[in-house]
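Folds vary. Our protein:
___
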Amino acid sequence: MSDGGASENPPTPLSASHQLWGGRFAKPPSEAMAALNDSLWIDRRLWPQDIRGSQAWIEALEHAGILSAAERQTLHEGLDRVGERLAGGGEADATDEDIHTLVERLLYEEVGELAGKLHTGRSRNDQVATDHRLWCLEAIAALDTEVSRLGASLITQARAGIDLVLPGYTHGQQAQAVRWAHVLLAHTWPLVRDRERLAAVRHRVAELPLGSGALAGSGVAVDRELLRERLGFDRVSNNALDATGDRDFVVELLFAVTMIATHVSRLGGEMVTYSSTEYGFIKLSDDFSTGSSLLPQKRNPDVFELARAKASRTLGNLVAMLATMRGLPAGYSKDLQEDKSLLFDAVDTALVTLPAVRGAMDALEPVPERMRGALQESLLATDVADDLVAAGVPFREAHGLAGKLVRTAEELGTSLRGVPRDRADAIHAALPDILSRLGSFEESTQRRATAGGTAREAVLAQLESLEGRFL
């Protein structure tokens, strides 16, 4: 969906002969000014959106009586040819100020002086806002697809691993026995929220600024509803001054991407831990691992480590955009030119990271024996407390009694079941019988059958609820 990376360094521009402004200036921009001001190096990827918006605009100009049908057709076909040139890699060395200037210059080459009518009643302010929103709509669709594919991968692994039991952790410490599927679905539900968030952002992006002019509205009576329909927006903007300076949609999309990156980072962090020698709960596939330049035995989980780092990078872009906007007045300020490099980089980063993480999740293999081997009987302490409650002991007291039992087992160097009957009886008379009936780790998971729990039926219910939410 892009033809260039946001992370490329901008070339040092030269003063272009074609400008969209300059009549009141006696001198052209200095090379130093042009180097700072020009943005073609980053916004040239908006050429499909710029041509699409311009073709809708000339149709609106025809309806407004500014262009004849023949002029509209000539301009439309000329823009088609400009698009073909750019799609074929033409003008790679262009030194125009921005993509809007480049498209118009090339249109002059295609149709001559008639190209001068293209910009009638339009400003670069509403033009760039429209181009950027069109790009965002495409980006949201691409992001949603990749998030959905990752969710589907997690669901597939969860179904396959529904009967695997391992320790569940809080604070990095073993807490209760859970199913491997339960862990995977704990990383799937955030992706549901990510997709909902993208849908909400799409609703706010789909507002058409074209026809707002520079800040006060267009001087030509263009039909903005016609423009909205042709470009696929849901509604037109309500205030021209707001529409040309509004970049809330950029911040919101950056936030949505940052949340996606954060959720992927959390997944990656857990997989890094579980793939370590000390845990060994999962084995990564060779084609989603890297090696060491010195240590032949290494299998490094770089895909997940990079996912963590990309989240930090994306967060930085979000903070930078918020800081850029925080003191701006209504309307367009050139500060807003920074929005594209920040958003393009964040989206590009996500669209590289998500497929790699999905591939790694598709290919990883759980190691059931290591999961079972890590289960400690102390994970059943809550079951003991629950059984004391069933025997009539208030929970707070039951919690303390179960804790004493754990401490006694630690002091004796034994398991909970290994605590001598008299020692257990000394803690509470009900404990010996409770310990004699203490179930397996699998049975412990089955006791957590409430909605959202780790019992098999509860996990199956989660899976059923997730069906249809992902590709």
Remarks:
- The radius of gyration is 30 Å.
